[in-house]
Specification:
Shape of chain A: globular
Order of helices and strands of chain A: HEEHHHHHEHEEHHHHEHHHHHH
Structural class of chain A: mainly alpha
Shape of chain B: elongated
Number of helices of chain A: 17
Number of domains of chain A: 1
Number of strands of chain A: 6
Order of helices and strands of chain B: HHEHEHEHEEHEHEHEHEHEHEEH
Helix content of chain B: 40-55%
Radius of gyration of chain B: 22 Å
Strand order of the largest sheet of chain B: 2-1-3-4-5-11
Helix content of chain A: over 70%
Oligomer: heterodimer
CATH class of chain A: Mainly Alpha
Largest interface: A-B, 36 and 35 residues
Largest sheet of chain B: 6 strands, parallel
Radius of gyration of chain A: 21 Å
CATH superfamily of the largest domain in chain B: Response regulator
Number of helices of chain B: 12
CATH topology of the largest domain in chain B: Rossmann fold
CATH class of the largest domain in chain B: Alpha Beta
Strand content of chain B: 15-25%
Distance between the termini of chain A: 24 Å
Strand content of chain A: under 5%
Distance between the termini of chain B: 43 Å
CATH topology of chain A: ABC transporter involved in vitamin B12 uptake, BtuC
CATH architecture of the largest domain in chain B: 3-Layer(aba) Sandwich
Number of domains of chain B: 2
Chain lengths: ~350, ~325
């Protein structure tokens, strides 16, 4: 019971933010919460948010684990492009759905393995190590698709992107399932704690008997796998693999989702559930902007403004605000608060 | 009018005339292969050169101006007869174009122009982006024939010149026809994914799409994405919602064959054909072409046997 309450307390700020963003959109666009059945599937803006947010949500699962080990994975957008291309190439060359999916996810795992080995074996900083694949990955994807948008008509593969089960779009089911599985694995076993231990202090973790190297490689592979699933969904959604644009800049949205979810970029404690809500907050902002009818020149400004507000409201410094105004030296007060913040986070 | 003596002298022209059937060597500096359209342009340039018996020297610049400048210098060193240049950026070409001019090698710009004095290049072969939007708008005005029509617009990448010009051209065409109104306009970044996502929100915001009569997309890829969104909302694209877009990539012809798209305006990837023709006329007769050769913005509709065009286009590398 207390565990559930602790969990709810952890994700409360994110839930409140999500509710506030949704409320804001509903104020601008009245029919926002309407959900109906059309064509045998749920139909409405809320469903769009869950559906369109699937790629970033999947990326955010892997990204949370990577960031918890004090790493970062910039290559997930490019891995999406590679895996979408592999799936499309496999299915158009006549392989079955299972083989195409297997190859695509294997490609994702291989990309993750490459990132993990660069970080662990060669000690390259994660931001640089994953930057390599971020740049090269689109080229690899283009080699697979031969520079064109590789379209396919295989109903099974298309179903993963735009089908529905009992009215719920398939991508939503996939990210819910992946999120629930990841949550179970890290919280019902010691794995989550081991990841946090490595993230807080890799050396201390290793000395305490945690196989830090293998664990770090594993989290990059999970990130690659999640990106692979996101890539297959993105390709299935448009019935084609677009090597140039699939997952473009989504690594940044995924990192943002993790940050909004309150996981520190310095590693350590993490919450997958909060990151997933973070992903939904980002998608709500995107969908809200599209519904609002503002000219497109304002899209990025509005998004940036909302994100700044969210991050400032979540900032621990702001919550520790009253202490800053203590008489007797603002600067000293601030640095004390900063120190305290570091200890508690 | 003063003719440029170093290019247009009778002596030079007759020199070329003396051996008209000799294989010409023409250098082509291509930007890279950032899109399917550009791949098709490269394929067609090779084809056109082969048809004319031209020895084409091809250089892929991988989106870098310094690579293009290097390629141009090497073409000049090899003493090619002419150079085709698809410039990656507009500025910074003066000095290398001067070198070509000193070597008496005519340069033809393909598909984009440069900020350089006009006498540094022979001519530029490009499409008129405003005109493309205009053709699309005119088609819609004719198609609805005075009936009221609410249009949603999928713009290209915000601030890019195709987005600005294709929007302006379309608006120009529908100006004065009060029955045709743009009710929503949003960017789809020229991609299928964003085209689909934005169309989904248009449909939600406009009474499940019942309020929308036509979709105008700045490129075919966004239209292809939007068509899927329309279908998933339970409406019939091409029927309940008219679909008109620009570029004429193969996949939109497939959609037209299935009755899901109505019209597209071609941005022809055959820029090299008119360029070679202009060069041939210039070299044999000394005819100086105009400084701008506008390619045709051809309108394709469902009546133009879209499946045949699809078959013809799909091998071009789009």
């Amino acid at each position: 019971m207390s565990r559930t309450r602790e969990f709810l307390r952890r994700i409360l700020p994110q839930l409140v933010t999500l509710a506030a963003v949704l409320g804001l959109i509903a104020a601008v666009y009245p029919g926002f919460f309407e959900v109906s059945m059309a064509n045998g599937r749920l139909y409405g803006s809320l469903i769009d948010i869950l559906n369109r947010g699937a790629p970033v949500a999947l990326l955010a699962i892997g990204m949370t684990l990577v960031i918890a080990t004090r790493g970062i994975d910039l290559s997930v957008g490019a891995i999406m492009a590679i895996c979408g291309a592999v799936a499309a190439a496999a299915i158009t060359s006549g392989l079955g759905l299972a083989a195409a999916l297997g190859l695509a996810l294997a490609a994702g795992l291989a990309c993750g393995l490459w990132n993990g080995l660069l970080v662990v074996l060669f000690g390259i900083q994660p931001i640089v190590a994953t930057l390599i694949l971020m740049v090269a990955g689109r080229g690899i994807a283009q080699l697979v698709t031969e520079g064109a948008i590789l379209t396919f008509t295989h109903e099974g593969l298309i179903f993963l992107g735009s089908g529905a089960v009992f009215g719920v779009p398939t991508p939503v089911l996939i990210w819910f399932a992946a999120g629930a599985l990841a949550l179970l694995v890290v919280r019902r076993t010691a794995l989550g704690m081991l990841i946090e231990a490595v993230g807080i202090n890799r050396r201390a973790g290793a000395l305490a008997g945690v196989g830090a190297g293998a664990l770090i490689v594993a989290v990059y592979m999970v990130s690659g796998l999640c990106a692979g699933m996101a890539g297959v969904i993105a390709a299935a959604d448009i019935r084609g693999a677009d090597a140039n644009n699939a997952g473009l800049w989504l690594e940044l949205d995924a990192i943002l989702a993790v940050v909004i979810g309150g996981t520190s970029l310095l590693g350590g404690r993490f919450s997958i559930a909060a990151s997933l809500i973070g992903a939904m907050i980002i998608q709500s902002v995107n969908t809200g902007i599209l519904l609002s009818g503002f000219p497109p020149e304002f899209n990025l400004i509005i998004k940036a403004a909302i994100i700044i507000v969210i991050l400032v409201l979540q900032s621990p410094r702001l919550r520790a605000g009253p202490r800053l105004r203590r008489p007797g030296g603002r600067v000293r007060g601030a640095s004390a608060a900063e120190k305290k913040e570091r200890v508690t986070s | 009018m003063l003719r440029k003596t170093f290019w247009g002298t009778a002596a030079f022209a007759s020199l070329v005339l003396a051996a008209p059937s000799l294989a010409q060597t023409i250098g082509f500096s291509q930007i890279g292969s950032e899109s399917g359209w550009r791949a098709a342009e490269t394929t067609l340039t090779h084809q056109q050169a082969e048809e004319r018996g031209i020895d084409l020297k091809f250089a892929d610049a991988q989106q870098k101006q310094e690579n293009q400048i290097k390629a141009l210098r090497s073409f000049i060193a090899q003493g090619v007869d002419a150079i085709l240049l698809a410039p990656v950026v507009a500025t910074g070409w003066e000095s290398v174009l001067e070198e070509a001019k000193e070597a008496e090698i005519p340069v033809v710009l393909l598909d984009r122009t440069v900020d350089a004095p006009e006498d540094l290049y022979l001519t530029a072969v490009t499409s008129d982006l405003v005109h493309e939007g205009n053709v699309a708008g005119q088609w819609l005005v004719d198609a609805v024939a005075g009936e009221p029509c609410n249009v949603v617009e999928l713009q290209g990448t915000t601030g890019s010149s195709p987005a600005i010009d294709r929007k302006a051209g379309f608006e120009e065409a529908i100006a004065g026809h009060d029955n045709v109104k743009i009710i929503r306009s949003q960017t789809g970044d020229f991609t299928r994914t964003k085209g689909k996502e934005v169309m989904e929100s248009f449909l939600k915001a406009e009474d499940g799409g019942r309020n929308i009569c036509a979709l105008y997309a700045h490129n075919d890829d966004m239209a292809v994405g939007a068509i899927q969104a329309i279908k998933e909302a339970g409406l019939k694209p091409g029927d309940d919602i008219l679909v008109v877009s620009i570029d004429a990539v193969p996949d939109i012809f497939k959609a037209m064959a299935e009755g899901e798209a109505n019209a597209t305006v071609e941005l022809t990837p055959n820029m090299a054909g008119p360029a070679f023709d202009a060069l041939a006329a210039y070299m044999t007769n000394g005819t100086t072409p105009p400084k701008w050769i506008q390619t045709e913005s051809k309108l394709y509709t469902q009546e133009d046997d879209p499946m045949a065009v699809y078959e013809q286009k799909k091998g071009l590398g789009y």
